[in-house]
Amino acid sequence: MTGKVTMKTTIYDIARIAGVSTATVSKVINNNGRISDKTRKKVQKIIDELQYHPNVLASAMKGKFTYQIALLIPDIDNPVYAQYLKHIEECGQDAGFSIVMCSTDNDAGKEARHIALMRQKRADGFIIASKFQNEPLLQALIDEKVPVVLFAFEKPQLSVDCVTVDDFMGGFAAAEHLISLGHRRIGVIAEHSYSGAERVRGYFAALQSAGIGEEDGLVIYAGSGLDEGEKACGRLLDLDNRPSAIFGCNDVMAAGALRAARNRGIAVPGELSVIGFDDTPWCRIVHPELSSIAMPVHELGKKAMEVIVNHIEQKDTSRQSIRMFPKLVVRGSTGPYG
């Protein structure tokens, strides 16, 4: 087949040459829908030969989809967000959508700028991961019926979809593991967030279930970074009656706890057990390898995409709050008391 490349090539030309409907061509372009491999390859060959590039923005302005979803993440330095991106992007591709990552640095102004830009580009929806500072803006998106899914966190006071892990049960599992090893004075370093508060609540519930009384000063709230985790853990380790175990409410903070212990000559796990949350690749890089609470990130990503695609394509206005169970992963950083 030969064909002269022109700027006027349209989806109708592709369909006519391939002998298929424009709907079939659209499915090939957007990599979604059910068509045979033979037909897909045939249509793709014609698209490649004619060097056809669809005008996505023009399609959006005609009321069609851009097949783009914006993913807002608060902290690119935390490896858990790389995991979120990997699995959400993978599930997005399976559904025929591309994922545009926007890093907000926990800044309400950046959140507003990213959302304004992606709305200008006619993004079909937003997945907001873990944190969002600008609640009035989030409420505005909800009021305007923009498809939004909260990922790995929730806002119970708002009518918005969320797909998350059960943070309460994760905190309970972390504390229960340490208690099972004989630890009774267990310190916690947590971040100021809904998820952090739920993980701490799970920790307290595990103490109560084991008949262990709460002690003042063993829970410290701090920033979620490595340095903040190290400083917060240092405060616990410098107590006259220091805890024998530390629960870091994310892996980065827990890695900071390992560093605080090392700088004080405290052996892990011989003199101090440390457990994290998220089960990121950091768990297998630090020494000793870090025990952690693992989230089913792939399943979470798949469900988040199902929910938002259903809103985009089916105009579904129902609201869902989906929680999945985490699991304990034991490595070398936790051991018996004494």
Q: Could you please describe the fold and organization of this structure?
A:
- This protein is of the alpha/beta class and about 350 residues long.
- It has three domains: about 10-55, Orthogonal Bundle (434 Repressor (Amino-terminal Domain)); about 70-165 and about 295-325, Rossmann fold (3-Layer(aba) Sandwich); about 165-295, Response regulator (Rossmann fold, 3-Layer(aba) Sandwich), CATH 3.40.50.
- About 45% of the residues lie in helices and about 15% in strands.
- The protein has twelve helices and twelve strands.
- The strands form two sheets. A six-stranded parallel β-sheet has the order 2-1-3-4-5-11, with helices on both faces.
- Strand 3 (about 125-130), helix 7 (about 135-145) and strand 4 form a beta-alpha-beta unit.
- Helix 5 packs across helix 12 (about 295-315) and helix 8 (about 165-180) packs across helix 9 (about 195-210).
- The relative contact order is 0.12.
Estimated share of beta-strand residues: 15-25%
Number of contiguous helices: 12
- Would you identify the regions where 5 or more consecutive residues have pLDDT less than 50? 1-7
Compute the average pLDDT: 88
What is the structural class?
alpha/beta
Radius of gyration: 24 Å
According to CATH, the fold-level topology of the largest domain is Rossmann fold
Q: How many domains, as an integer?
A: 3
Helix content: 40-55%
CATH architecture of the largest domain, please? 3-Layer(aba) Sandwich
Order of helices and strands: HHHHEHEHEHEEHEHEHEHEEHEE
CATH class of the largest domain, please?
Alpha Beta
Silhouette: elongated
Adjacency order of strands in the biggest sheet: 2-1-3-4-5-11
Distance between the first and last residues' Cα: 78 Å
Largest sheet at a glance? 6 strands, parallel
Count every beta strand, where a strand is a DSSP E run of 2 or more residues: 12
CATH superfamily of the largest domain: Response regulator
